[in-house]
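Appendix B, example 12.
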Amino acid sequence: MFARSPIAKTLFKRSNFVATSRMFSSTVGLQNLPDVLKVNYHEEFDQGLTEEQKSSMKRIDIYRSNPSDPEDIPKYVSYYIDRKDCGPMFLDALIKVKNEVDSTLSFRRSCREGICGSCSMNIDGRNHLACLCNMPDNDVKSVISPLMGMFVLKDLVVDMTHFYAQYKSIDPYLKRKTEKKEGDKEYIQTIEERKKLDGLYECVLCACCSASCPSYWWHPQEYLGPAVLMQAYRWVIDSRDEFTDERLEKIGGDMKLDECYQIGICSLACPKHLNPREAISNLKDMYIEYRDRKEADSTSF
């Protein structure tokens, strides 16, 4: 099931849904229509609040889905939190909901400092890290969904298996053809060579950029996506690495790299303010130079 079309899967399981008693305060409407038509379907979690109390609280609609349960229907569930009794970030709100309101809510989180990349999700239409995303200081409702284009495992938790497999495919580690000389402890870089890695090594692999990329939506099996390609570029330009041509050969010449059309949404989506669009552009230039050099060498015999 894709997060961008959460209702579609239910059409193949049943043609109609009969509302049953739940722990939510509202009942399911449009019972006689196929679930796929209930695009705006949502429920409100019963917190026992009055309308007056709700008016002074922050409303957050959170995507809820459990694909493992054939009786579950994907939906948005409304929760209300007291901003005065909650931290400033959306992750604080999610933790408060899970700890104090609805313990069945599922999401990933770890460091709370924008370093681990675990809490990536779509917040009010933009992919972000929940721990770095401030809740707006207004009464407008916010909507939290899984990363776009990813298979949902449960609620806000998406399957990152394919993303990590693509990352592994670029060999994201230093590769050498020559060993260190006796007595050497490090592979030395100049200050200028080290500076080239700035804006690349800081990536936390949250997949916010890849999940925002139209090319990655269209061809996730073939195209590596902006996050992985930016890390590929990071190793290609590392002066200590001695497999530059082999790396370029591995990622170029097909849709792994060529499917990038320099739209730039990836750079706008990055919560760490990195620039994968520029990195991919530079990587493409390096591959073209390598390809031309390779063709020239093959015709010189």
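Residues 1-39 have pLDDT under 50 and may be disordered. The chain has eleven helices and eight strands.
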